[in-house]
Structures are given as structure tokens and as C-alpha cells.
Design brief:
single chain, about 375 residues, alpha/beta, Rossmann fold, 2 domains, seven-stranded parallel β-sheet, three-stranded parallel β-sheet, 17 helices
Length: about 375
């Protein structure tokens, strides 16, 4: 019975999709209309996929996106709706489903490569997300949160608490986690410079120790919501985080990021982070080779997000960035983050690192065109891995 019901739903969806496509195909003679789908259950997809699409879509193109029942950030979704000629509706789902099933190469179908392009330089040319609603609340919320007296820097670490509560996507993510206490020295550095340090995190399972400072604040768990996460990132000096959904929020707001514990370390996907940002890859030890992998070997790993225990099967052990590595990278960013004349780091050591990477197409975009840099202090400490 369950199989029958499932099949009937499948056929019904195709039938509805057929009629929707026929109707909009006629309208397309006057205005170009296309169908896509956004995986709104994950904030990274909600931010990056829409941002990437808007950065390269053609003029006067009308896009109708299907979405999931689960919305990871309602505020951001409502913000995207304010763009011209973009809609989020079940119509988008049915149209996408029919075209994907029968006509996967049809021009009315918004393809995955448009939502998640590799080697893109279009995404940071303009800001697609309208921040007017955030600015309207700035004065009121600064007073309410008592953060208006000094600038602040946001911190976020990835742990497994959020996915345990909200549910994952079936893929393995634990290797991306690290401990909030790895930020302890960096938080003390920030607060010593008359800046506030604000920890973000919707659901967390770790507390930071040895921090007793009036300039340290936590907007986590019950103090975190869709609006405050976006508001705080929009008004911070820069964000310190790993490759998570909050990093993508910073990207659509064009905020600089210190991308710590970067893994998977794929240069071809790093175009999505804001100009002037810096990154620190996680290191990997090969049990088979009895040595640390070189940066170029880490970047060349053909990691598959759908494969369980990818690193364990290959006898690879992941090593998080140390507290000191993060500390000196924060110090480095604090000296340069206000400079808007973006420049790539120039030194023989940096040249040696970038020249060691096989994917020189990605190097040209990430280093030369977007000026994203590997942390100078991190590279000097780990120059043996070049």
C-alpha cells in the first residue's frame, strides 16, 4: 500500500509539473522563465546557491525555485524574495521535477552548475542580499544587546550539536568539527584591544573555559535566532569560523572571514568567500606514508561527501589548527582587515605554496583575482608541508 501511495504521489507530481511547464512555456515567448530548486534546510545552500545564481543570471530572467519544508533561516529567505524576478513556490518544485525527469538539458531548467559553480569570479562582483532591514534595526539592537560601545569580532566553531538536533543530510561531517576552546587565546587577544568578542551558534554542546571577561558575549542556543545571527555578522568587523553555513552568511554580506580548519581544502570552491579573507587548512597525517601530507596532496584529495569514513578508509588522520595557529592568524587579520585595497601576499614562500598546487586555474582565480590568502603566520610555521 505504501509503495502504491508513493507511486501515485510521484505520478501526480509529474502530471502537475507537465501542466506547469506547458503553461510557462507559452509565457516564455514573452519573458524567459526558468525552474530550479534550493535546499533550504541547510543555511549554506540557502545563502551560497541563491547568491551564485543571482550573480550570473541573465537580465529579465524570471526564476521560480522550489524549496524544502525545512527553512534553515527565514530571515535570509525573506531577504532573497526582495530581489526582482525571483520567486520561491511549489510551482518551482513541480516544474523542476518534470524537467529534471524528462528534459534535463532543457533551457528552462536551472542546473546545479549555476547554483554551485566551480572556478567562478562572478559571485563577489556585487552584493545581491539587501541589508536595509538589518540597518533599520541597528540602533535599537545595538542598545538592546549592549554592543554599541565598541566594535566586535564574531567567532563560531562547528560541532555536532546542531545536526544531532535538527537532522543531517545523510553525509558525514564530523571531521569538520573542532573545539571552541581553540579560540581561547584569540578571544583574549580581541578583548585586550578594546574590541568585543561574540560567540555565535544556534545549538552548541561545548562551553569555553577560562574566559571571565566583560567584553566576551555569547549569542548561542536560546540567544540565537535567524535574525540575530544575520544582524551580528552584518555589523561585525570580521568573522572567524570554519566552512559552515554562518561563513556563507558572511559571504552574502561581503564580510571578511578567517576560515580556520578548512576541510575539504578545495581551491576551486573558495571563490565564494569575501575578498581579503584568509584561510588555514586542516593538516592531515598519512598512517600509510608515516608522514604529514603536503598542502598540494591535501588539495588534490578526491574527497566524496557521500562516502562514509572517507579519511579512515584511506588511513588518514585529521589534525585541527592549534590554538596558536589561530591566534597568530587573528593577529594578522586585525592588522589588515580595514584595508580595502585587496592585495595578494607577496613572498617567495607564498609563491612556492601557490606554485605547488596542481590546479593552477583555481590558483589564478583565488589568489590573483580574489586575493584570498593562506595565513602568513600559518604558512611560515608549516613551510615544511609545501
Amino acid at each position: 500500500m505504501k509503495k502504491l501511495i508513493k507511486k501515485l504521489k510521484y505520478l501526480t507530481a509529474l502530471l502537475i509539473g507537465f501542466f506547469i511547464v506547458i503553461i510557462f512555456k507559452f509565457i516564455s515567448f514573452f519573458r524567459k522563465i526558468r525552474f530550479g530548486i534550493i535546499y533550504t534546510g541547510r543555511v549554506g545552500h540557502l545563502c551560497h546557491n541563491v547568491d551564485a545564481y543571482l550573480s550570473q543570471r541573465k537580465k529579465n530572467e524570471i526564476s521560480i525555485f522550489g524549496i524544502q519544508k525545512k527553512i534553515s533561516n527565514e530571515f535570509i529567505l525573506n531577504g532573497w524574495k526582495k530581489n526582482n524576478n525571483i520567486y520561491f513556490s511549489k510551482i518551482g518544485f513541480y516544474g523542476f521535477f518534470f524537467l529534471k525527469t524528462f528534459f534535463p538539458k532543457n533551457r528552462m531548467l536551472i542546473k546545479w552548475s549555476e547554483l554551485y559553480p566551480n572556478y567562478s569570479i562572478d559571485i563577489l562582483k556585487k552584493k545581491n542580499f539587501n541589508t536595509k532591514d538589518l540597518q533599520k534595526q541597528k540602533k535599537k539592537l545595538n542598545i538592546e544587546y549592549k554592543i554599541n560601545k565598541s566594535p566586535y569580532i564574531c567567532f563560531h566553531n562547528r560541532d555536532d550539536a546542531y545536526l544531532k538536533l535538527k537532522g543531517g543530510d545523510g553525509n558525514e561531517h564530523s571531521f569538520r568539527n573542532f573545539n571552541i576552546n581553540d579560540y581561547r587565546s584569540s578571544i583574549n587577544l580581541v578583548t585586550s584591544k578594546n574590541l568585543k568578542a561574540i560567540r555565535l551558534g544556534r545549538i552548541t554542546n561545548q562551553n569555553i573555559t577560562k574566559i571571565n571577561n566583560k567584553n566576551y558575549m555569547e549569542f548561542t542556543n536560546k540567544n540565537s535566532n535567524d535574525f540575530t545571527d544575520t544582524f551580528l555578522i552584518n555589523n561585525c568587523e570580521f568573522l572567524i569560523a570554519s566552512a559552515t553555513g554562518l561563513s556563507n552568511i558572511a559571504s552574502i554580506l561581503r564580510k571578511k572571514i578567517i576560515l580556520v580548519n578548512t576541510i575539504p581544502f578545495w581551491l576551486r570552491e573558495m571563490y565564494q568567500y569575501t575578498k581579503g579573507s584568509i584561510f588555514l587548512p586542516k593538516k592531515i597525517y598519512s598512517i600509510k606514508k608515516k608522514r604529514m601530507l603536503k598542502f598540494c596532496e591535501i588539495e588534490a584529495l578526491e574527497y566524496n561527501i557521500h562516502e562514509k569514513n572517507f579519511f579512515k578508509k584511506r588511513k588518514l588522520r585529521i589534525i585541527n589548527n592549534t590554538q596558536d595557529e589561530i591566534f597568530f592568524s587573528v593577529k594578522e587579520m586585525m592588522e589588515n582587515y580595514k584595508i580595502n585595497n585587496y592585495k595578494k601576499y607577496e613572498s617567495k614562500l607564498h609563491d612556492k605554496f601557490w606554485n605547488s598546487i596542481t590546479d593552477q586555474r583555481a590558483v589564478n582565480i583565488v589568489r590573483n583575482k580574489l586575493c584570498l590568502n593562506i595565513s602568513d603566520s600559518f604558512l611560515k610555521k608549516n613551510k615544511s608541508l609545501i
